[in-house]
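Data card: per-record layout.
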Amino acid sequence: MAQVELKNVVKIYDKKKIIDNVSLSIKDKEFLVLVGSSGCGKSTVLRMIAGLEEITDGQIFIGEKCVNNVHPKDRDVAFVFQNYALYPHMSVYENIAFPLKMRKLSKKEIDAKVKEAAEILDLTELLTRKPKQLSGGQRQRVALGRAIVRNPKVFLMDEPLSNLDAKLRVQMRAEIKKLHQKLQTTFIYVTHDQTEALTMGDRIAVIDNGVIQQIGTPDEVFNNPVNKFVAGFLGSPSMNFIETEIKDNKITINGIAFELNEEQKIKLADKNKVITGIRPENFNCENSNFEFPVKVEISEMLGSSKLVYFKIDNYSCCAFVNNDFELKPEVRLKINTEKLMFFDIESDKRIL
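The structure for this 352-residue chain is written out next.
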């Protein structure tokens, strides 16, 4: 088991800085999720830890050892790829056993480790099958089994669930979390899926354009985002952002003004314009104290609730409402003004 530390890591491709001075400390036995949109650099960070990409500058430590010049096979990490990377001509047993054969373990040791991994992942009945005879979820479990038998210090997972359907993704999220609890090993997991990040990680590192924007527990980054990017990226649907004016300690939304509370007055004392953030679930919620009219454009039935789309001062917005909420061309929505977030118009940083 080991902690992983990145110190001022930089990666440059064709004179372009892909990873910009990233410092990150992952604790021993922690499940850390790197989350960000496609092309933000999260997979590059993972590949640099694995040794599959050379770093341009900085240092990477696994345990107490700097691994900048250590060959990937000697870093004692296991990599689970997005596309499973199984050998199609080999059985499930042979796929799981392959890394052990490369280490020249005895047949008896290999057999014991493969059967143990198969038991953990519920693959015992499938050991004689070929990958083409397996479902997507079963193939992913085989890829996990091949990583488990190596007993690595660190598991690295690069969007391992992205090829699965929605129902199977939910199931496999739970399986991977249970696996982490059982193995008590350091997991570093890359995804662009906010739900995966919020439900799986002990901590989340949000990355954008090669820069770590915020690191914290799921609760911290969701409820206390440091900037507009983090606030907008985490949550589904994402936060509504509206440019609003402040005058005489009042904010106007859709033509109706409400007075700021004492804390908000202090925060926004030197501002006359801010970006106001409202999460879709903050409409018609408990202690809603401010009401305004909106024209409904479309609505979606989600089973336990409805998602309503509308405009506020020409900004496209959406809100969750209860199923018994009566939908008409124009409706009145409420918000809890205590739950509003405010962001600086120039820097996009949250005003705290």
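Known properties of this structure: The chain has a mean pLDDT of 92. The longest helix spans residues 166-183.

See the next section for split statistics.
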